[in-house]
Specification:
The protein is α+β, with helices and mostly antiparallel strands. It has one domain. Helices cover 43% and strands 15% of the residues. The protein is built from six helices and six strands; from the N terminus they run H-H-H-H-E-E-E-E-H-E-E-H. A four-stranded antiparallel β-sheet has the order 1-4-6-5, covered by helices on one side. Strands 2-3 form a two-stranded antiparallel sheet. Helix 1 packs across helix 6, helix 4 runs parallel beside helix 6 and helix 5 crosses helix 6. The chain is globular.
């Protein structure tokens, strides 16, 4: 079967173009990321290394601060300006030190075009041998009374060879490279669309 573009191709193209433009602009902004009135960000560069991210990015900082090893990735997703992290886990081992829970960040997205750029960027990291495991972006179930769609960024594979340490190292590498890769991927898709 041949895939034929829909009659709404021009409309989708302009919508995708606007989404790619928004992503490029938002990713390059350098103001406070976690909250607009962050006092710390006004005095020094806002960064994923800020020790206050686990509390400031959480909607319930006292009872549910973000776990420290996943906080930099949640920060970098929010910093892109088109995703809103809403849940995360740094991953956990069981009592026998076997991998029990995979690291993940759940988020809302402004556009499925943004989700595609994120997914492609993380896939490219694995193809470039920057990650120990392939990672994926997938549609998630959220609360039954929440009509908004959530997505998850997490490891795609769960096998006996994966360790919590290797996946947490992946989290740190994704956080470190995400902005640059997303900007580059968005620019590439924009060229393909216009060219």
């Amino acid at each position: 079967m041949r895939i034929v573009r829909s009659d709404q191709a021009d409309e989708h193209t302009s919508s995708s173009q606007a989404a790619l433009d928004a992503m490029a602009v938002a990713a390059q902004q350098r103001g406070p990321v976690c909250t607009p009135d962050c006092v710390r960000a006004k005095h020094q560069h806002c960064s994923r290394k800020c020790p206050y991210i686990p509390q400031v990015l959480s909607s319930d900082p006292v009872n549910y601060p973000i776990e420290p090893l996943i906080a930099p990735l949640a920060f970098e997703l929010k910093k892109l300006g088109v995703f809103e992290p809403c849940w995360s886990c740094e991953g956990h081992n069981d009592q026998q030190q076997r991998l029990q829970k995979l690291p993940a960040v759940w988020f809302y997205a402004h556009s499925v075009t943004h989700v595609r750029v994120l997914s492609d960027s993380v896939r490219d990291m694995f193809c470039d041998r920057r990650l120990s495991s392939p990672w994926q972006v997938k549609l998630c179930f959220s609360d039954p009374n929440n009509v908004n769609t959530t997505f998850s960024l997490d490891p795609a594979a769960h096998n006996a060879e994966l360790t919590l340490v290797s996946l947490q190292n992946d989290v740190a590498k994704i956080a470190e490279e995400l902005e640059g890769r997303v900007i580059k991927k968005a620019a590439t898709l924009k060229k393909l669309q216009t060219g």
